[in-house]
Amino acid sequence: MTDHGIALPHYRLHVVPAVVALASPTWQREVWLDPDQFEDLDYTVHVLFDDFCDANNPRPWLGQCLRSEEEVELMARLGAAYGAVQDSVGAAARDEAYLDSPGWSAVVAAAARLAQVLVANDHLALSKLHDAGHRWPLDTKPIMRSACRGPVAECERCGPSGRTR
User: Fold this and answer.
1) Which residues contact 162 (CB under 8 A, 6 or more apart)?
2) CA gap 102, 120 in Å, rounded
3) For 49-75, what is the mean pLDDT?
């Protein structure tokens, strides 16, 4: 995978949870159908199609909030699956109509695959930062090598000395 990096990490902070929500039928029914909750399908769709990405045309978002060609391809698949459901139920349909649509399982499946890739790519990017010596929070102590666990500030088993407790 070529990680193109992301120029708009704050956008990705909206995109990833929206994709994860689309991948979770339980979340959709418990949160989106609860009138006391802020998040619903409309909110999620605006995140992915209007505000922080364009699932209908995700290529321009490569290097902005999408890290790889695979993410672009999977986002396009998600956009196509959602578009098919929207065409079948109508843009003005209630959330329940979308969730009960026969095509909704394709949306969930496309979102689940994309969610796996987004999270794996973020984990890989964070691992590279970690290996380069970057730590979060930023004010943590410098890294010491531990005999048993690699680069850590203090091994849980060994303590700062590197000897097993």
Assistant:
1) 144, 145, 146, 147, 148, 155
2) 29
3) 97
